[in-house]
Amino acid sequence: MDLRSRLGNALKEAMKAKDSDRLSTLRLINAAIKDRDIALRGEGRESGVSEEEILGILGKMVRQRQESARAYEEGGRLELAERERAEISVIEEFLPRRLSEEETAVAIDSAIAEIGAGSLRDMGRVMGLLKERYAGRMDFSCVGARVKERLSG
After folding, report:
1. Which of 52, 94, 122, 151 is 20 to 30 A from 24, alpha carbon to alpha carbon?
2. What is the pLDDT of residue 46?
3. Quick one: 14 and 62 in the same domain?
């Protein structure tokens, strides 16, 4: 079952169960995807958002909520931070399993070897390949530093 179908089914189930918190998060996800669909149609792409792009949207939503939760905690607004974390858990249900540290290291090494990267100038190509293959499965803010370290060392 594709990601859009899974999201649609989850939305219907949340409506039936009258789970308002889950329902609002699922509606936010659908709205973000539809916004991107509309933007792509304006650019002449009628097919809409691909699975990989949906994963990217979900990953971005998780990062935004993690930043918000940290800001709320620093401001002493623990109930708002907890709400952000609840939204993160709903969004992560639709993301593929995160790669472990070891799997991430292997993925970085194989991408570097595949591209033949030898210096920091190749970092963009390595990151592009990793994002293409592992969208939503690794934390690219941490991966960037690891790739940089591997290419400079």
Report:
1. 52
2. 80
3. yes
Given pLDDT bands bounded at 50, 70 and 90, which one contains residue 56?
Answer: confident
One domain for residues 23 and 68: yes
pLDDT of residue 25: 96
- What pLDDT, on the 0 to 100 scale, is given for residue 28? 96
Q: Residue 120 is part of which domain span?
A: 101-152
81 plus 16 within the same structural domain: yes
CATH number of the domain that 144 lies in? 1.10.10.410
Number of neighbours of residue 11 by Cβ within 10 angstroms: 17
d(C-alpha 57, C-alpha 112), whole Å: 26
Q: Model confidence over 125-142: pLDDT tens digits? A: 999 899 888 877 887 778
The set of residues, in sequence order, having a beta carbon less than 8 Å from that of 65 and lying 6+ positions away, is 84, 85, 87, 88, 91
Q: Is 74 buried (19+), middle (13-18) or exposed (0-12) by CB count in 10 A?
A: exposed
> Which of the 8 DSSP states describes residue 76?
T
